[in-house]
Amino acid sequence: MAPLEEPTAATLAPPPPHFVIVPLVAQGHTIPMVDLARLLAERGACVSLVTTPMNGARLPGVADQAARAKLALEVVELPFPTGIDGLPPGIENVDQKLAGPLEAYMRGLAARPSCIISDWCNGWTAGVVRSLGIPRLFFHGPPCFYSLCDLNAVDHGLHKQTAAAGDQEKFVVPGMPVRMEVTKATAPGFLNFPGLEAVWIECVEAMRTADGAVVNTFLDLEDQFVTCYEAALGKPVWTLGPFCLVNKDGEAMASRGNKSDVVQQSAVTAWLDMKDTDSVVYVNFGSLVRKPPRLLFEVGHGLEDSGKPFLWVVKEPEVAAPEVREWLEALEARTAGRGLVVRGWVPQLAILSHRAVGGFVTHCGWNSLLESIAHGVPVVTWPHFSDQFLNERLVVDVLGVGVPIGVTAPVMIFDDENMPVGREDVVRAVSALMGGGAEADERRRKAKKYGEKARRAMEKGGSSNDNLTQLIESFRQCAGKEG
Ligand code: UDP
To answer: Where is the sequence biased in composition, kind Basic and acidic residues (predicted)?
Structure first.
């Protein structure tokens, strides 16, 4: 496709298209959609990011930064119905309850929005926009590799086969351009958990009836899977990523997700500044994973025994117990100078973009993986649940930028007590990632190559940049129609 001229806010013919963005309320879903909102707004579109009052309070700075940059990006806090179905006041994460307020908001606008982009887990938005005649795209968080596996698994009834199988029995996912084997445990199916079947069916149905998909990936990373996914879905797939690269300065990076401790972050940066290039392994398991003490000890001892400089982020609740706190303090004393343990939330992008960080031990959430790839940082893969096992296959087998820790079965969220990972696994994987040698060098070379390609994809003339232009242009025609 010939590169398109990049319109700016000044050259776009008015009125610009209006996108309404409806994230799922969970950090791993909201963070990329906030980035997407900024990407669209920076290219001249009007964007309304929908949330609830309580969750809006967790988006500090989004509206302020947009206002300062003169972007047409507003955060819309929909009233969340309270006192229903026994929900206590203050609980606002049952997104379905937003259907009425979202419809009322859109009906109240002077002009009908051009398009709604909703998280694929918000299948309920399909009903809302159908009655209003507004085009709908779904945002699918994982890479096209995973989405293609997922779609093929549903279409070929893979779940029925795996349900009757033994835990380690292998199945080939049909319709993949590469041979992909899964077990019952690692088979795709994000919401394929007992009790969530009805939600899952609603979401899959909403994907089928949408007008297209928006994915946080880029063509040079997974070209063949994007093509196959688009063909299998039978509708446009807009690859616009890595979204995280919209955050260009320290302030934007620091305001993503939960609030980080500013003083702590300066100390982290000062510590990283003293380290050699590519020497530090960064360890963080995303927003949801909580490690029980037994596994924290294995991670800590493994990092200590690896002999490598490390920056390890633990969550406050993980280290709340006095005996865990004491153990951690002793570890910090033994590894002082070489290791840094941070408690709470860190601005991950700022860390991954620091020249001293040369490896990342990750749970394989797609945001974390793509953020690492976008900054040329190879990974140790330690998947826990949902899409993470297949994301691991993409980065290890297809892209060649990962070392597996060696887990083969998922754990439920907040329950990885029985995960069979020991300190020797951490030592082996971290040493392989951070040590010298041909394999480590090759992995690092590939990661840096993908990092460069990621940047190019987002620049003028790059594939994601062009796709964004086309997306905005294609919905400009719908802009400004009477509601
Ligand atoms: N994140 C962060 N600081 C932290 C932990 C997580 O900024 O201390 C961000 C991370 O950069 C990513 C998101 O939270 O954007 C986590 O999403 P991911 O898909 O990796 O995993 P999930 O949290 O959904 O399991």
So the answer is: 442-459
Ligand 1 center to residue 81 CA distance, Å?
29
Q: What is the rounded (10 degree) CA torsion for 178, 181, 184, 189?
A: -10
pTM of the model: 0.93
Helices 219-233 and 438-458, axial angle in degrees (round to 10): 70
228-269 tens-digit pLDDT: 999 999 999 999 999 999 999 888 888 888 777 888 889 999
Tell me, using a 6 A CB cutoff, whether residue 284 lines ligand 1: yes
SS3 331: helix
Predicted pLDDT of residue 91: 44
**Which residue's CA is the closest to the ligand 1 atom numbered 24?**
28
368 lines ligand 1 (CB under 6 A): yes
How many whole angstroms from 289 Cα to the centroid of ligand 1?
10
pLDDT of 90 = 45
Residue of 24, 25, 27 to test ligand 1 pocket, by largest number of atoms within 8 Å of CB: 27
Fold topology of 18-142+190-245+458-475: Rossmann fold (3.40.50)
Question: Does the CB atom of residue 367 touch ligand 1 within 6 A?
Answer: yes
Q: ipTM for the complex?
A: 1.00
Q: Where in the chain is the domain with CATH 3.40.50.2000?
A: 18-142+190-245+458-475, 258-435
Tell me what the pLDDT averaged over the chain comes to: 89
